[in-house]
Design goal:
The protein is built from six helices and no strands. With about 180 residues, the chain is an all-alpha fold. It has a single domain, classed as TspO/MBR protein (Ferritin). Helix 1 packs parallel to helix 4. The longest helix has 29 residues. It is elongated. The N and C termini lie far apart (about 80 Å).
């Protein structure tokens, strides 16, 4: 009666949680990015002067796919750590940083607020660092999964800073409307 779960039952529990967390976080990231029209196809973004360290556009999709998947796995490890001290705090801190993360694309690409996005990405970096430390107290593997995300956020912060310096009037730039040709 008072038996503990077997190793296979524990693995299945984690697998079920991961099968929800990973796709959900990837979906949320790409949904917000799509709604914000983030990326090279954004006409406002195409007008901006790009920093020398700006990587090719395709790299962002690859990087964020991997980073969101790793965040999903990290979160699944924490959710699966039932009864662990600090679990609820770690989940709340992760949710907070993810919410900030999801606000960045609309702030930068949709609202054209490069300076505000810079403040926001620094807040994301700090809150993701705090969440990572909280994860480490619950499950070390979850914290390790967050490290590439922290490194990317540090790079993205520098990139955002350079966009801000190279484009001081970015907030006021307005792309020309798309031209539609009707051929009869």
């Amino acid at each position: 009666m008072g038996e503990l779960a077997s190793k296979s039952q524990l693995r299945m529990s984690f697998t079920r949680i991961a099968l929800v967390c990973v796709p959900l976080i990837i979906f949320l990231g790409f949904l917000v990015g799509s709604l914000a029209n983030s990326g090279d196809e954004n006409r406002w973004f195409a007008m901006l002067e790009k920093p020398a360290i700006h990587p090719p556009g395709w790299l962002f999709g690859v990087a964020w796919s991997l980073l969101y998947a790793m965040q999903g796995l990290a979160l699944a490890l924490i959710i699966d750590a039932r009864g662990a001290r600090g679990r609820t705090t770690a989940i709340c801190l992760f949710t907070f940083q993810l919410t900030l993360n999801l606000a960045w694309s609309p702030t930068f690409f949709m609202m054209h607020q490069v300076s505000v996005a810079l403040v926001l990405i620094v807040m994301i970096l700090v809150s993701a660092g705090v969440a990572t430390f909280a994860f480490a107290r619950v499950r070390k593997a979850a914290a390790w999964l967050m490290l590439p995300y922290l490194a990317w956020l540090a790079f993205a912060s520098v990139l955002n800073y350079q966009f801000d310096k190279l484009n001081p009037a970015a907030e006021r730039m307005v792309p020309e409307p798309a031209k539609t040709e009707i051929i009869l």
